[in-house]
User: Fold this.
Amino acid sequence: MSEPALSGIVITFNEENNILEVVESLRQVCDEVVVVDSCSTDNTVKLAQEAGAKVVIQPYLGDGFQKNVALKHVKSLWVLSLDADERLTPELVGEIRKIDFSTTPFDGFQVRRKNFIGTRWIKTCGWYPDYLVRIYRHDKLKYPEVKAHAAVPHDNTHRLNADIEHRTYSSITEMFAKQIEKFSTRSAKILYEKGRKISPFAPFFHGMHTFFLNYFIRKGFLGGIDGLSISIAMAVNSYLKYAKVIEWQRNPEMTETEDFNNSLW
Assistant:
């Protein structure tokens, strides 16, 4: 039996509402799908296995670390990485099927990502075109081993004229909730662990800079209420990231209720 030309990989944690669709999406072009699950407490693992995916259980290590775990379990040199809330478009499926992975001179391929709030495709605030390397030879390229915001390097890669769809948030409410409760806390923990002293003015300046960047430089003002909401939400995220670190540094006992090892989702 020959090795598969392309292996699909996805990391999950409590993704029972997404897992079947992402596995089905990957199987359009992949000969195998490997799911690295971070000890889900819902039906993610069961559903993934029923869909024909190989499931590897790995307590969460951080974004880049977790995605690279899958590379130890794939059969192909070439992998296609998706997040659980991402899907291949028909156009991208067609582009991938044209690639001869045995002869291509490239080490990876970039795709555009279409980010959505609800059913609304967001084209401002730097959300499109959002080029990412998602198809790559893992002996040449891989995710950097960092806890957050990992992205495969663009070295010797080619841009495909097609997209993946990313159901980023179901609503503006969910976007704000995640920035406040999840993403700012994750970023703050990473910053806090570095031990750097934070200026009391840092939350304000970083928040204002983030708003200016997204609303004016990245033209969020062209996106109406969505562009304004994204710019404010990103600014709140940045403000809270630094404010939380300052709070922990002033009151170290508050960190005793925070899990710095396994709650970086």
Q: What stands out?
A: The chain has seven helices and nine strands.
